[in-house]
Amino acid sequence: xxxxxxxxxxxxxxxxxxxxxxxxxxxxxxxxxxxxxxxxxxxxxxxxxxxxxxxxxxxxxxxxxxxxxxxxxxxxxxxxxxxxxxxxxxxxxxxxxxxxxxxxxxxxxxxxxxxxxxxxxxxxxxxxxxxxxxxxxxxxxxxxxxxxxxxxxxxxxxxxxxxxxxxxxxxxxxxxxxxxxxxxxxxxxxx
Amino acid sequence: xxxxxxxxxxxxxxxxxxxxxxxxxxxxxxxxxxxxxxxxxxxxxxxxxxxxxxxxxxxxxxxxxxxxxxxxxxxxxxxxxxxxxxxxxxxxxxxxxxxxxxxxxxxxxxxxxxxxxxxxxxxxxxxxxxxxxxxxxxxxxxxxxxxxxxxxxxxxxxxxxxxxxxxxxxxxxxxxxxxxxxxxxxxxxxx
Lengths: 191, 191
Known about the structure:
homodimer; alpha/beta; 5 helices; 29% helix; 37% strand; globular
């Protein structure tokens, strides 16, 4: 998605060779006009797939998921990160390791809102090592729901998550795939 | 806002006399079509106030804030809950006590995204004891930004936060003000 790549080139800040800060428009300050274009593009790519619910994970996926859901005319559920013990039976639970924060979270979704009748599109801001996305996929599997695919805003294609998850036969659509980055030369995209 | 009150009456679940669960449409599963109506109503109430940025707090405020921002044509910033020590100088920090989780969080916003040039509308899903809202107001004050007011989806008017904050001269617009609730009689609204 060219508009997004331009924005990353212009406003993204590269630290070292693997940190890309996009908090001026994506995940701290949020440019909702850009989110509308992102939502339209996800809708274009997953049109006709029968998506009836979007699943994301708190916190930075929520804004993108909600704006995207307007184009699918469906609700959003966000999986919650929890460090508290949950009541068995009421929620689907999975574990997600955050490499950024050096923690393992329990990630939960209420069983009420995810069922075998659902056709789920997962939306998230970043895909790198794939831990968060695999956690969300596990929640969809536990519910017996159909997974239509995952829509990712920025994929760090030099990290293993995207290839591993595509290797499981899951459709992953990333709007900007970063091949490499450096503080000197900036961001290089795949293609 | 009548549509919202109807939805709360229909789908809200009252536990005891002070817990109102609205996680089927507001803060776990999110009905973005309802959020559009909420956003329009906030825009109607704060039209002409020169809002150039919306401030909210993770996680459940983010979806409502993003959809609302589409009607104001402005970006959103979400304040982050952090239990890690932050680098002095780069962020505004305040402390917020969560009564639900029995914890005190540091809540932070990058100084880059909040400044004396901004006219801020705060958006959040709930107002009860007022701790989260007062934290957000403190962040706006630290930045020297102008606070236009706060737009709240559901206010528990029987808890002290709303009155205390209005008593400081701050404009608080709540779309549904709950006067009392019980498992037997459901939710009663102010007015």
